[in-house]
Amino acid sequence: MSASSQRRQPEELIDLSVARRCHVVGIGGPGMSPLASLLSSRGHSVSGSDMRDSEVTEFLRGEGIAITIGHDSALVHGVDVVTYSTAIPDSNVELAEARDTNVSVRHRSGLLASLCEITQSVGVAGTHGKTTTTSALTHILVSAGIDPSCIVGGQVEGMPVGARYGKSEVFVLECDESDGTLDVLPLSHLVITNVDIDHLDYFGTFHQVQQCFVDAALRTTGVVVANQDDEFSAMVLEALRGDLRLRTFGRGDDAAVQVLSVASEAAGITIQLSVDGELATCNSPLRGEHNAMNIAAAIAMATALGVSMTDACSAISTFHGVRRRFTERGEFNGAVLVDDYAHLPAEIEAAISAARSHPRNTGKTIAVFQPNRFHRIAAMADTYANCFAAADVVVITDVYASGTAFIEGITGELVVNAIGAAHPKANVVWAPTRQDIVNAVAKIIAPGDLCISMGCGDIETFPDDLMESVAP
Q1: How far apart are CA 276 and CA 257, in angstroms?
Q2: Which one of 221, 249, 309, 430 has the lowest number of neighbouring Cβ atoms within 10 Å?
Q3: What Pfam families would the database entry show (predicted)?
């Protein structure tokens, strides 16, 4: 693997083929709760701690997991392994006590790696679309009777905390590159949806981002599905050139799964595919060209694992996606309100494209965006200059911290300025507060419009805020 002092190194694996006593620090978090649930379902004795109760902790208690609110060093006594996420500081009293008493301590990635070691692991990685692709692939496999286990970073029907236990050896998991998890997983198979610029705070350079995906592909022992159309996936394709493990998807004629056309319909999208030279039609309730590509990636892996093309396309017709991925939330003044997790330029461009193609969008496309993380906007504000070009009106609010430290002078207005410099005639509104956003949108929205609000912070409540305001 390429050298980088910043990238995570593998930890010694824990043998999870026998029952273990596992303690999960921060068990209510979005990365730890599915891991805890799956470990418990596999027969391990699981306990956990968190700073607050939530619907997630209540659900986990219902699965028989003992959860303590607050952190206490005594909680790690008598356990075999303590696991934690990147969000937990090294000073945490449970981690400190475990290390002082020689209890094994593993980052979340270490426990995932240990699970991968004893399963037929199918990783789904990539800068964009991995949550939807992971969920779609799992749905196809379940529908085909393969009964996989799964860990995914989103809310999906049938997986209340982002986890599913299946009785087969197949384990589908979303692989996060942002904290080095992808760097340490011993995967049987791998999907790489695409590669883009992000997480430079961890990687340092974009070359290291690309190298991370190359290293993961080379380390994978089985099938590697990659995006033939994606410019920044070229390093992956070149590294596996001539390798029979490589299976591609995309628009190109020589893709194993070729997307021939995508049509927007009242109920979703109709995708014409060629799968290993055989024509197929997939009807999906999802929207957008980007989701057609996610579906193509999922089908490429599913068919490599033995699912027939017919069964895969049939399953896609009943896959309703992931919460906060182009989710229609309601109406305001005769306009459709859509919520989306898009927070990077390519994702925003794709979401706006899907919004414009929506059959009910007969008026303006209004794009609302909440930038995320101070260090990301400090490094990348200028890259947002062109991704809103297809919107008729753009409303930008202030940065959502997502736990990052405040940086003086870094505000959402940097994105406003980047758009204005590249597109002087663009209709861009700076709305720093939530009430400012509600006022700005309520003033201009009209019947036939579609308003899509985007970001990975608390912008998800904006459609509710707007609908609760007084209609103009």
Answers
A1: 6
A2: 221
A3: Mur_ligase, Mur_ligase_C, Mur_ligase_M
168 shares its domain with 38:
no
> How far, in Å, are 129, 333, 357, 359 from residue 351 at the CA level?
11, 22, 10, 15
363 confidence band (pLDDT: 50, 70, 90) = very high
Q: Answer yes or no: is 8 within a domain.
A: no
Total-model pTM: 0.83
- Choosing from 52, 87, 107, the residue where a domain stops is 107
CATH value at residue 79: 3.40.50.720
Nearest to 110 by CA among 135, 89, 81: 81
Residue 381 clears pLDDT 80, i.e. is over it: yes
**Distance spanning both ends of the chain, measured CA to CA:** 59
Q: What is the CATH number of the domain that holds 336?
A: 3.90.190.20
> Edge-to-edge, what's the strand order for the sheet holding 66-69?
66-69, 45-50, 21-25, 81-84, 104-107
Q: Both 334 and 399 in a single domain?
A: yes
86 & 46 share domain: yes
Degrees to nearest 5, angle at CA 364 with 359 and 367: 100
Q: Which of these, 139, 118, 213, 125, lies nearest to 174 by C-alpha position? A: 125
Average pLDDT, the chain: 93
Angle value at C-alpha 140, between 46 and 184, nearest 5 degrees: 50
Reading the block at residue 407, the tokens are: 């940086």
178 pLDDT above the threshold of 90: no
Give me the helices (H) in 357-472, please: 374-380, 413-422, 434-444, 462-468
pLDDT tier for residue 5 given thresholds of 50, 70 and 90: low
Torsion region of 306: left, alpha or beta (phi above 0 gives left; psi -120 to 50 gives alpha): left
- pLDDT tens figures, 406-449: 999 999 999 999 999 999 999 999 999 999 999 999 999 999 99
Nearby residues of 214 by Cβ (< 8 Å), 6 or more positions away: 2, 235, 236, 239
Count of domains forming the chain = 3
